[in-house]
Amino acid sequence: MEPIYLDHAATTPIHPEVIKAMIPALEDVYGNPSSVHHFGRRARQFLDEARRIAAKSIGAQEKEIIFTSGGTEADNLALIGTAIANQHRGNHIITTTIEHHAILDAAKYLEKRGFRITYLPVNESGQVELSALEAALSEETILVSIMTVNNETGVIQPIKEIGAILNNHLAYFHTDAVQAYGLLPLSVNDLGVDLLSVSSHKINGPKGIGFLYVKDGVTIESIQHGGQQERKKRPGTENVVGIKGFAKAIELVMIEMQDRNKRYGNYKQLFLNTLDEQTVNYQINGVHTIASIANLSFPGTNVESLLTNFDLSGIAASSGSACTAGSVEPSHVLAEMYGSANETTINSIRFSFGAANNEQQIKMAAEKVAAIVARLTKDNDIR
Ligand SMILES: Cc1ncc(COP(=O)(O)O)c(C=O)c1O
Question: How high is the pLDDT of residue 322?
Answer without folding.
Answer: 46
